Each structure stands twice: as C-alpha cells, then as structure tokens.
C-alpha cells in the first residue's frame, strides 16, 4: 500500500519530462482544465515529485566519490569522480537535473486549482513540494555551486536559457523555504504514507544545510529542535528491512519489490552473483577502531592489534558495514584474499578489487541466502537521528562548547553500537574532539552518502583523497574461528593497488557543469573553477 503509489506516479505523471531545465515548455504539462481538480489528482501529481527526488542506488554509490569506496566500472559514473579525472565532457554521475524541480514548480503553480480539496490540506501538499524542491537545490548547489534558481517553469526552451545564480542566493532560498514549511508539515503520517516529508525531515535538511556551510550556531539550534525520534537499539538491526520504519528514521527513500525495487546487485560479492561495483577501501576499514575505543594504531603499539589477522575485537560497526575476509556471509566463508576463490580480485570482473564488499542493508542475505537481492523492498535512509546527535556534537566542538551535552550526544551513538563512552581525559580539547567526531561520522554513516560532502566541507579532501588507493593484503583464511564465528586470517602478502587518485582543491570540490547542458544553454558559462 505505502509504495504502490510510486508506480502509478511514474507511469502517468510527467512521462515526457527530460533532465535539462530547458525542457520545460508545456508540451507535457497537465491541463488545469482537465486535471487539477480532486484529491486524487493532487496525490498523483505529488507522487510524480516524490518519485524522482532521490535514488537509493545513488545514495549507496556516492561514497565512491570519497575515500570510503571505489567504483570498479567507469561507465557507472563514479570512478572518475573518485579519482578526480572528470571533465565537462565526461562529468561522471551527474546531479545536474532539473526534472524534479520542474515537477514541483508545476505542482505549486496548479495545486490551488483543486478547490475540491480543503485549503488546509492543499497547504500541506504544497509544503511537501517545497521541501522536495529545496532538497533538489541542496543537492545541486553542494555539487555545482552556482546554479539557475528556477521557481516558475518557462513557456519555451528559449526563455529557459538563464544564467546561474550565486550559491549564496541558492542557500538563502533553501533556508527560507525550509523555515517556511517546518511548522506546516505534519510531525508524522499514517503508516500507508510513511516516506512523505515531515516536520522532522525539513528540520534535518535545514540542519544539514547549515552544517555544510559551517553555520554552526544555526546547525546546533536546528538539531536541538528536532524531537520525537530516538536511536534504534541495535546498529546492525537498524538496517534490517523488517525494522525500516523504526523511530530513528526521519526520512527514507521508499522501495517495493516488482514495482519500485531496490537492487543490491552492485554491492554484493561475485561469488553470490553480485557485481562488486562499489566496494570499501582499506582506508575505511582501518578507520574502525578497537572495541575498547582505541585506534588500531594505538592497539598495535601496545601489542593488541595484529595487522595479519586484523578483524579481532574491532568496532562492531565494521562487521555490520563491511564483508571482510574470514567473515561468514550469505551462508559461506568470504575468502577474497585467496587466489583460487571466486571473490579474489582478478578472478572475474565482478570480483571486488579491494578484497572487501559492503554489508550494510544486506543482512537479509544472512537470514535468507536465496533472497532475490536484485528485487528488494528495502528503504534507504536519507536522515536518521544519529546524524542529529553527531551534528549537535560537531557544532558544539566547532563553537568551543565542550560540555556534557556534547559528550552525551557522541556517547549515545557509540554505546548503541557496542563501543565505550568517550574518554573525557583523552578527548578533552577541540583538536582531539574534532578528530574523534570526524571519524565517528565516517564509521557510523559509511555507505550512506555523507562522506564526500564531509571531507569537502572539512577542507581535508586533498589530504585523504590524493595518492594510492589500496585494498586488502592477500593471504589465506585459517581453520580456526573467533567467538563471533568469523574465521581467523593470515594476511601476509602485498596489498592491491587499485588506482592513484588526484584531488585538486578547489577544482574537485565541485563537479563540472556537463557540456551537454552548456550546449543547450551557453549562459551557464563560465564553468566551475578548473573546468
């Protein structure tokens, strides 16, 4: 019931819209004289807005543009974003798409024609469209900087040839729109409407916007205003599809089998039919510390971490996020470090080149290895309460407000994961806490699409993205096991060198405006710096 509406909307609404904002002449517009009349019409049109505003697949691919992951197949669009070798002619996985904005504009222009629908209901409908449009502009401006600000559709493609508005104007628009709709949107909907924009979703997007642009005062105020949510008791269980509507989830992208399915094929190992399109890096794996709170470097210096058998006593989020050698996954032992195994890096094109695969969201395969992973109904999370807590902590760190509220926010996330509370003596100043919170965000949100924006807004992308991208050391899986059922490993052979990456700031902080868009609208020039 809750997801069937996506299929209806995709089939019937805006079927001839194209990606460019130039394609907004009213050839495909819905006639006010025949369509914009009833609640059914508004539901159908609003579904057209929701159906394209975000993609679960895109969220999971996005880490390949950061130091968290590698995209093995260049034609999927993330390899060149990850290694910095992109251009206007080859822009990678482009976000330069105004189709959803067009739909929202059309909805907002016509919704009040549906006079059969009570005005108070129409106000809520329009608030949802404004939220979706604000979300689209957040994605556009964080990826491209200056972009055209279009709030009314054009009558002809010629009229649509407009220049880019400064990022500051786009940011102001986003903040004004979200501020306006926060007190209009409901705090929740009935179960059949789960996935629609709520007050909490608008607050969370506004919070993320403030954090990205380093307005820490407003980020903190907004984060603290978000109420009614709580952490799910289990980090691993959070991503089980049976728990997808738990109280931590503020907003998610909805999927349903056969109609609007989520395929996990790109993220799974070759040995079970996956493509290993997006795989974790060694850098990400090394970011997960020991279960007692020490980094692996600290533990190794004290003789408690063995780099040849590295997966013992680690942060439990590592096992919940990454399939690593020796782990039992989908009913078999993952042996990617062994030369004769189907998951060995050069056995097949679909074998992980790093020796790791992602596990987050795919624990359903542990429960049922025969599950149709190419046709799943898992919702993919956009905002969850853990982000609110870690935003409170980060904002307070940057504002120099080192107090119990800061520690309590981080501790809530760590304790839920099975990690200890923060050592207040070890992490007592801004510099040490900044390092801690940045790593905490990395390991908590891996594969959730936040890492690239984080390293760019922290101005550390050049530091963490340049140089050799490495995978796991090769070796063998032993016959002995750990208490959690994983097999011990002996990883003594050289690491895989996947590629050499480049990240030039400020150039690679933004993506290039695609040449195809510039060809349609020369007023989009000049392109972003370096392109």
Automatic annotation (TrEMBL):
Q: Give the location in the cell.
A: Cell outer membrane
Q: Where is the SusD-like N-terminal domain?
A: 21-211
UniProt keyword list: Cell outer membrane, Membrane, Signal
Q: Can you cite an annotated GO cellular component? A: cell outer membrane
Chief localization class?
membrane
Q: Where is the RagB/SusD domain?
A: 268-531
Annotated signal peptide: none
Could you tell me the superkingdom of the organism this chain comes from? Bacteria
Listed Pfam families: SusD-like_3, SusD_RagB
User: What Gene3D superfamilies does its record include?
Assistant: 1.25.40.390
Query: Which protein family is named in the record?
Result: Belongs to the SusD family.
Record protein name field: Starch-binding associating with outer membrane
Give the organism's phylogenetic lineage.
Bacteria, Pseudomonadati, Bacteroidota, Flavobacteriia, Flavobacteriales
């Amino acid at each position: 019931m809750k997801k069937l509406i996506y299929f209806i909307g995709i089939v019937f609404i805006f079927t001839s819209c194209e990606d460019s904002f130039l394609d907004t002449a009213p050839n495909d517009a819905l006639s006010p004289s025949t369509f914009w009349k009833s609640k059914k019409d508004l539901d159908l049109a609003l579904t057209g807005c929701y159906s394209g505003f975000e993609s679960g697949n895109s969220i999971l691919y996005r880490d390949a543009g950061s130091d968290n992951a590698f995209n093995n197949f260049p034609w999927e669009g993330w390899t060149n974003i990850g290694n910095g070798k992109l251009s206007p002619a080859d822009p990678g996985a482009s976000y330069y798409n105004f189709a959803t904005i067009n739909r929202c504009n059309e909805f907002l222009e016509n919704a009040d024609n549906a006079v059969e629908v009570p005005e108070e209901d129409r106000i809520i409908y329009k608030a949802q469209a404004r939220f979706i449009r604000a979300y689209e502009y957040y994605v556009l401006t964080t990826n491209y900087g200056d972009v055209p600000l279009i709030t009314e559709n054009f009558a002809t493609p010629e009229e649509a040839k407009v220049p880019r508005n400064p990022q500051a104007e786009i940011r102001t628009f986003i903040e004004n729109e979200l501020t306006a709709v926060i007190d209009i949107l409901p705090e929740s909907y009935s179960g059949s409407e789960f996935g629609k924009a709520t007050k909490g979703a608008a607050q969370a997007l506004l919070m993320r916007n403030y954090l990205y642009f380093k307005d820490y005062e407003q980020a903190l105020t907004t984060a603290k205003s978000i109420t009614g949510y709580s952490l799910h008791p289990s980090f691993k269980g959070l991503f089980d599809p049976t728990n997808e509507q738990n109280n931590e989830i503020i907003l998610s992208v909805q999927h349903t089998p056969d109609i609007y399915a989520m395929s996990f094929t790109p993220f799974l190992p070759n040995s079970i039919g996956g493509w290993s399109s997006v795989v974790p890096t060694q850098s990400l794996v090394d970011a997960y510390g020991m279960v007692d709170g020490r980094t692996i470097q600290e533990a190794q210096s004290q003789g408690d971490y063995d780099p040849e058998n590295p997966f013992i006593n680690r942060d439990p989020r590592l096992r919940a996020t990454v399939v690593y050698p020796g782990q039992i996954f989908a009913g078999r032992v993952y042996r990617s470090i062994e030369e004769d195994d189907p998951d060995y890096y050069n056995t097949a094109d679909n074998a992980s080149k790093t020796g790791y695969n992602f596990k987050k969201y795919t624990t359903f395969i542990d429960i049922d290895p025969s599950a149709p992973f190419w046709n799943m109904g898992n919702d993919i999370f956009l905002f969850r309460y853990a982000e609110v807590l870690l935003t409170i902590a980060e904002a307070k760190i940057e504002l120099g407000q080192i107090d119990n509220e800061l520690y309590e926010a981080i501790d809530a996330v760590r304790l839920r994961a099975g990690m200890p509370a923060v050592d207040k003596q070890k992490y007592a100043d801004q510099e040490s806490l900044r390092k801690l919170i940045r790593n905490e965000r990395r390991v908590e949100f891996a594969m959730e699409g936040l890492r690239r924006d984080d390293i760019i807004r922290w101005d550390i992308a050049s530091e963490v993205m340049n140089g050799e991208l490495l995978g796991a050391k090769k070796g063998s899986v032993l016959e002995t096991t750990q208490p959690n059922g994983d097999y011990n490993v002996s990883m003594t052979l050289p690491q895989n060198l996947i590629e050499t990456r480049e990240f030039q700031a400020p150039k690679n902080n933004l993506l290039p405006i695609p040449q195809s868009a510039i060809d349609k609208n020369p007023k989009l020039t000049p392109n972003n710096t370096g392109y």
